[in-house]
Amino acid sequence: STSKIFIFQLNEEAIGQVRFDFENNVWLIDYSIEKLYRGKGLGKLMLKQILETFKSEYPILAYVKIENIASAKVFDSLGFKKNEIVEINNKIFQIFEKWKTSM
């Protein structure tokens, strides 16, 4: 599988990351923000910036824990569509999907 990781910095300090893993003809997207910087809209900002430049003819999927309402709102606001709900290792995830065409 192929992975791409983008690290975001503020004043030379790493504050978050966005990761893409290519598996079975889809990109799985995941992101995290350092605890001190959560709740400030940085997750949406990071993802928006990456998605504006990330080119792929394959779908992008996000697996969001059902209790992670903040993250679900971020993907929803970035044009991801709600897909199925799945259970993996006793955790429930809402899958969000976005199709992105190469330009």
What is the mean predicted local confidence, pLDDT? 93
Shape: globular
Structural class based on helices, strands and sheet pairing: alpha+beta
The largest sheet has its strands arranged as 1-2-3-4-6-5
Radius of gyration: 14 Å
Largest sheet: 6 strands, mixed
Q: Report how far the terminal alpha carbons are from each other.
A: 23 Å
Spans of at least 5 consecutive residues whose pLDDT stays below 50 are none
H and E order: EEEHEHEE
Describe the structure.
With 103 residues, this protein is of the alpha+beta class. The chain is 20% helix and 50% strand. It has two helices and six strands; from the N terminus they run βββαβαββ. A six-stranded mixed beta sheet has the order 1-2-3-4-6-5, covered by helices on one side. A hairpin with a 2-residue loop joins strand 1 and strand 2. It is globular and about 40 Å long. The mean pLDDT is 93.
Gist?
By secondary structure, the protein is α+β, with helices and mostly antiparallel strands.
Topology:
Blueprint (H helix, E strand, L loop, with lengths): L1 E9 L2 E11 L2 E8 L8 H12 L5 E7 L3 H9 L3 E8 L2 E9 L4
